[in-house]
Amino acid sequence: MSNPVITHQPGAGGYGTNVQTGDWSTGLCSCCSDLLVCALGCVCPMALSCYTANKYGENCCLGFVPGGLTAMRTHMRLTYGIQGTVCNDALMTFFCGLCEVCRMAREIRIRNGEVSP
């Protein structure tokens, strides 16, 4: 019995690449485009963090874990094909945390068809 002959080798960079060409559906400061998310973020940001993680299919405590929002933003960005880097994810959630959680919640609601962009 003979071994199969390999006639094609995988190219460099072909494994594990993820093409990211999209953008977020709303801007960072577009909080008033979804009044429910805006109100929840202003009244109780931790509840919005829980709501966002739950709607995304994660444990609602993810927002309370250090780095949890960064991890969720990175996963969301990769899932939806949105441009960016892990470093940018960390900086955005650290310096613009509340606005970023609002944007992630709006993105989920838009992608689920609950609101229009």
SSE inventory with pairings:
Blueprint (H helix, E strand, L loop, with lengths): L34 H9 L1 H11 L12 H13 L5 H10 L1 H15 L6
Helix pairs in contact: 1-2, 2-5, 3-4, 4-5
Structure characterization notes:
The chain is mainly α and 117 residues long. The protein has one domain (31-112). The protein is built from 5 helices and no strands. It has helices at 35-43, 45-55, 68-80, 86-95, 97-111. The protein is elongated and about 70 Å long. The termini are far apart.
The tally of helices reads: 5
Write down the overall mean pLDDT. Answer: 86
Largest β-sheet summary: none
Instruction: Indicate the low-confidence ranges by residue numbers.
Output: 12-17
Structural class: mainly alpha
Tertiary shape: elongated
* Portion in beta strands: under 5%
Task: Give the termini separation.
Answer: 60 Å
Strands, total number: 0
What's the helix-strand series? HHHHH
Number of domains: 1
Radius of gyration: 18 Å
Helix content: 40-55%
Short description:
The chain is mostly helical and 117 residues long. 50% of the residues lie in helices and 0% in strands. The chain has one domain.
Pick out its properties.
single chain, 117 residues, mainly alpha, 50% helix, Cornifelin-like, PLAC_motif_containing
